[in-house]
Specification:
- With about 180 residues, this protein is mostly helical.
- Helix content is about 75%, strand content about 5%.
- The chain folds into two domains: about 1-75; about 75-180.
- The chain has a two-stranded antiparallel ribbon.
- It is globular.
């Protein structure tokens, strides 16, 4: 059951990433180009252009968040992390998992708490008159998916640490090896 749920969430993460990078990123690029042309060629910038670019950037970044984690392309202190071996690397993974769970869990909870207020007050952007609460729901959804993935990752990493196993990465292949 857990494997099926994890598989579904992995496919969901990939779908979100594809949506962000195949749809919203080119749309953002097109909008920036149009805004530059309007500003410098016709001295008539799109008043809502910067705000829309910000929302599109938010979508690109948040929709790719869990997929980036799955692909191990997330940001970390690589200069320190690559020198960690054995239980120290497992401890660093555990610490990053726990802090991520706390941060994204609280972020998701706060997003859910904000939605009803945003709907009641008809909160929109300054120049762009579209409601902002759907973006908050997307943020909450992705945060909760990420928390679930981090819980699985952290529990898996904890099991590896207790078994005394080390992860060795070579050319994208992960090899588990017993520590002596």
């Amino acid at each position: 059951m857990l494997n099926r749920l994890t598989g579904f969430l992995n496919r969901f993460s990939e779908w979100c990433h594809d949506l962000g990078t195949i749809v919203f990123l080119p749309l953002m690029t097109l909008l920036i180009t149009l805004n530059v042309i309007m500003r410098y060629a016709f001295n008539a910038p799109l008043l809502w252009g910067d705000e829309m670019d910000g929302l599109l950037l938010f979508l690109v970044l948040f929709l790719s968040l869990t997929y980036t984690w799955d692909q191990k392309r997330h940001i970390r202190m690589e200069i320190v992390y690559v020198h960690l071996k054995g239980w120290m690397r497992s401890l660093a993974d555990l610490a990053s998992g726990i802090t991520g769970i706390i941060f994204f869990g609280l972020l998701g909870i706060q997003c859910i708490r904000d939605v009803s207020y945003m709907i009641r007050t008809h909160e929109t952007g300054e120049e762009l008159a579209i409601p902002l609460w759907p973006f908050r729901i997307i943020m909450a959804l992705i945060s909760f998916v990420f928390v679930f993935k981090l819980i699985i990752y952290t529990l898996h990493g904890r099991k590896e640490m207790e078994k005394g196993k080390v992860e060795i990465e070579r050319e994208g292949i992960i090899i588990h090896k017993e520590e002596n």
